[in-house]
Design brief:
Blueprint: E1 2-4, H1 22-25, H2 31-34, H3 39-45, E2 58-60, E3 67-72, E4 76-79, E5 82-86, H4 102-114, E6 118-126, E7 136-153, E8 159-163
Parallel strand pairs: 3-6
Antiparallel strand pairs: 1-7, 2-3, 4-5, 5-8, 6-7, 7-8
Amino acid sequence: MLVRLADFACRKASIVGSGKKISSQCGGQDDDMKQAWTLSTCFEHFGAVRSRQHFGGSAISGDGATVVVAMWEDELVREHSQLTYQSRFAPTLKGKMHGVSQQWIAHLKWAIAHCDSRVRVVVLTAEDARADPRVVRSCYPDDSLVMQITDFDTRTGVFRACTV
């Protein structure tokens, strides 16, 4: 079920030919700084603790006021002064369970219901951007990036978000 959350001015843009790293465009850290972060420390930076039972690509702060979501760097697309995120892959679980993370879906639903659809972002860089599932090469919390969920498929966990 695809949920349309708002008619924001999120314009489609092509990542093909951009040739620019989003991290340098949106106030992210340089490559040396990225290497110092782990997924856990990235989430803790925003006051949230991620689950260690599986991928844990999302978390909610203790007070419930902040939802933090990991987003792949190559899925962040800049058009003019706005960034758009369109997930291409649902957050799959590794091991014996190969379903979509219900925790991921619950966290995004929480953001929609309690945080005005807004999420803080941990930017992930993949070892191989074509792989599915992907392996994280590096990550960092982006203090300058707040995204608002505009579309969300509650069955698959795939979503779209734009900068606020």
